[in-house]
Amino acid sequence: MSAQTPSNPSTSYPQYPAAVHPTSRDDETKAPYDDLIDHYAAPYGSQAHRTYAVDPASMSRHVREPSFPLSKHSYDTSRDYKSADGHNHDPPDWEYPPPPTKGEKVEKEAKTWRSYIPDSLACRLYLLTVLVETAIDLAIEGDIILRFHDAGSSDSQDMARRRMPVYLSIFAMAHVFQFVLALDAVWGRNVLQFITLAIFNALLLLYAVIQITEISNVTLTLTDGISHVSINTLAIIIPVVISVAEIAYIALGWKIYTEFGWKVYKFLGADRRIKTMFTHHQIFLCLVKFDLFFWVGFSVQFIWLVLNHHDAEFYLTCAAFPLSIIVLIEGHLAARHENKWMMLSFLTGCGGAMVYFVYKLVKVLRYKDTDVFKEVWESLTTFSVLAILLLVVTFVFALLVMNNFGRGLKEQIEKNKHKTQGGLSRGKSQYVHRGPMSTHPNRMSID
């Protein structure tokens, strides 16, 4: 029985002529489906006639479950895929995200050396300032050391000839140490280390001012050196350079503090407990680094200016010098890996070092009027007192850091470690743009 069209127009059913009989206007706006299919099927042209070997055991599985392991990467699978002609071909790529193309690999290798240059302008200027200060002061210190080395002296002036090159060498070593810590502070985003570097540079300024008086009091007949500039003029230039650098450190340090504050917040999150533990961790690492400098400075002075090669104490001090460095490295590794046994060993080493420095300080103060300590007791006392104070503070923060073991700081740092490796430490985003979809056919997109 055929359907009849109702006679009443008001009760007629709605008609959809466009859905049944497309008009000429619809033909003009209709999407070219054949072109779209050819466009999106182009990347799969190499796999158009490929057949796949199916595991018979997989036939017992659910009909919707794939017979190939999705958990493995395509290049890790052991299945053999063959085409219709019997030749082996690469298996289909099921991994996500897709691997980078050759162009991206070349671009990544070309930018490897740039990853060591900070993106922040303040960090670049900071490192440039430290580099310029270090280069100028090292050149001046080297010229002065050569003048003392070439100067002739009598027996009464031999101590001054031995003492000044050692002090100048320690001063030069301090500048190199400062530059290394500046690089470490920028790369590790250690805001507290920038503050301590400003304080350390102020101490260098004080030492440079005292050095002017010590050099002017030397009665040796000095040569003109390499620069042929008066030695008193060179001694005055050093504190001037350090003063200008100190102003730059304070200004740039404040700018870096504001920049790194937000980056550290993104790195650690909003958990105040994690931030407090991370602060203790950073302070401890900073103290360990400065312990290293004062331990080395004291040992160099004591070995070269006080001890005699025929004394047993000379060899004991030389043996304790590398041992102390090993103890400090052990403390750094213990805090990084949260190893309690290593931290306990570090605390034991700190206790032994404290006894050593107290013994040396008492000996220096007791024999300060003798010929051996008369010219060097002030410098040795300063280094030993600073080393003891740093050891006490380091011991306290080592206990705080060890108490924080197992409370989530290590896991938080490891969880966000890929952000730092991906460029977050240099102010970049951790997301990577892999190009258009046509170059990565397995990549899904919602437009």
Would you kindly provide a written description of the structure presented here, covering whatever features stand out?
By secondary structure, the chain is mainly α. Among the domains are: about 120-270, no CATH class; about 270-420, no CATH class. Helices cover about 65% and strands about 0% of the residues. It contains 14 helices and 2 strands; from the N terminus they run αααββααααααααααα. The protein has helices at about 15-20, 25-30, 35-40, 100-110, 120-150, 160-190, 190-215, 230-270, 270-305, 310-335, 340-365, 375-405, 410-415, 415-420, and strands at about 50, 80-85. A two-stranded antiparallel ribbon has the order 1-2. Helix 5 runs antiparallel to helix 6 (about 160-190), helix 6 (about 160-190) runs antiparallel to helix 7 and helix 11 runs antiparallel to helix 12 (about 375-405). The protein starts with 16 loop residues before the first helix and ends in a 26-residue tail after the last helix.
Helix and strand arrangement:
Layout: H1 17-20, H2 24-29, H3 33-41, E1 50-51, E2 82-83, H4 102-110, H5 121-150, H6 158-188, H7 191-216, H8 231-268, H9 272-306, H10 312-337, H11 340-366, H12 377-403, H13 409-415, H14 417-421
Antiparallel strand pairs: 1-2
Helix pairs in contact: 5-6, 5-8, 6-7, 6-9, 7-8, 9-10, 9-12, 10-11, 11-12
Keywords: Membrane, Transmembrane, Transmembrane helix
Biased composition (Basic and acidic residues): 23-38, 73-92
InterPro entries: UPF0658_Golgi
